[in-house]
């Protein structure tokens, strides 16, 4: 299935109804606005975001009047495009680097979202930009995750600090960071343990790790397939441990778009990067503008 396929065709239905009109009025946009609302809800966009989106588009549409050479259906496409960009945060939000010493990036997230994979992908991405990286394996509840990280590290030529599963994550963080400083690496990325659901144990552990690492970036890895649930998670982690942004994975699957469109508005935190596949190359910055283009087909 084409990513956002359903959202794309749902939105298309809206402008089709304006064909042949000379100007957008409160009356003739009523049906198109219903189409837009329905398309967003079906894409699992969070309800408050849908409400605000539809209101804003509708206000702009009615206020637009006649524009020579631009038909109402094209006007509506443009308004929706710009509103999509806005809802996704407008500008691309880059990874920040520390002014001195290593930049520390802490990754958090529930089990199975792709956190361990992202850890290696991110190192690969930064390495290509000329940064030396080191990974810290902190998923102490899943020995397989540590092995997986070591294998990925070898594959991309990035060292991985491991201390097994018997050491507390906060101590692993402390020792790993020390090692990174000794080796003068530019960026340290720490993988942490996820759980099936948000629980106090995970949050406390992350708070401990965060205290020791004092990270420049604390990024929550969320699965695009979970739709608006991804946005609620970003809010929860933001409130509990403080995060600087999100990484949205599995955008190559048949994600309906709800996560991409809800995270920023619901949580106030930007999506910084997106994963769109299992290969190391499959991580890229989140460009609201390109994403809007893709949604509009
Ligand atoms: P973790 O439990 O969060 O550490 O998750 P893993 O990194 O082990 O990933 C879980 C599964 O999702 C693995 O099979 C990964 O290959 C897969 N995965 C991770 N990111 C992506 C992605 O962007 N797209 C796809 N299709 N699969 C992914």
TrEMBL record:
EC number: 3.6.5.4
This protein's name: signal-recognition-particle GTPase
A cellular-component GO term for this protein: signal recognition particle, endoplasmic reticulum targeting
Molecular-function GO terms, alphabetical: 7S RNA binding; GTP binding; GTPase activity
Lineage, highest ranks first: Eukaryota, Viridiplantae, Streptophyta, Embryophyta, Tracheophyta
Keyword annotations of the record: GTP-binding, Hydrolase, Nucleotide-binding, Ribonucleoprotein, RNA-binding, Signal recognition particle
Reaction(s) this enzyme catalyzes, per UniProt: GTP + H2O = GDP + phosphate + H(+)
Start and end residues of each SRP54-type proteins GTP-binding domain: 270-283
The gene coding this protein: LOC108843405
One GO BP: SRP-dependent cotranslational protein targeting to membrane
Source organism of this protein record: Raphanus sativus
Family as reported in the entry's similarity comment: Belongs to the GTP-binding SRP family. SRP54 subfamily.
Residues of the full protein shown: 78 to 374 of 567
């Amino acid at each position: 299935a084409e990513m956002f396929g359903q959202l794309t065709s749902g939105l298309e239905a809206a402008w089709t109804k304006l064909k042949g009109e000379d100007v957008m009025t409160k009356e003739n946009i009523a049906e198109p606005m219903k189409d837009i609302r329905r398309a967003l809800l079906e894409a699992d966009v969070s309800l408050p975001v849908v409400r605000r989106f539809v209101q804003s588009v509708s206000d702009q549409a009615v206020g637009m009047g006649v524009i020579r050479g631009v038909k109402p259906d094209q006007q509506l496409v443009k308004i929706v495009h710009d509103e999509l960009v806005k809802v996704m945060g407008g500008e691309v939000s880059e990874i920040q680097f520390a002014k001195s010493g290593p930049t520390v990036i802490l990754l958090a997230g529930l089990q199975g979202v792709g956190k361990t994979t992202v850890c290696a992908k991110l190192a690969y991405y930064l390495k290509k930009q000329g940064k030396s990286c080191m990974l810290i394996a902190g998923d102490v509840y899943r020995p397989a995750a540590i092995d997986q990280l070591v294998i990925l590290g070898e594959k991309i030529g990035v060292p991985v600090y491991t201390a097994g599963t018997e050491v507390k994550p906060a101590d692993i963080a402390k020792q790993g960071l020390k090692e990174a400083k000794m080796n003068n690496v530019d960026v340290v990325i720490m993988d942490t343990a996820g759980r099936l659901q948000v629980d106090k144990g995970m949050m406390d552990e992350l708070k401990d790790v965060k205290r020791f690492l004092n990270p420049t970036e604390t990024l929550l890895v969320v699965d695009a397939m979970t739709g608006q649930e991804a946005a609620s998670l970003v809010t929860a982690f933001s409130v509990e441990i403080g995060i600087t942004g999100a990484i949205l994975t599995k955008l190559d699957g048949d994600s309906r778009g709800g996560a991409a469109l809800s995270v920023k508005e619901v949580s106030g935190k930007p999506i910084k990067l997106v994963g769109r596949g299992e290969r190391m190359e499959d991580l890229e910055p989140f460009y609201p503008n390109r994403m809007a283009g893709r949604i509009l087909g």
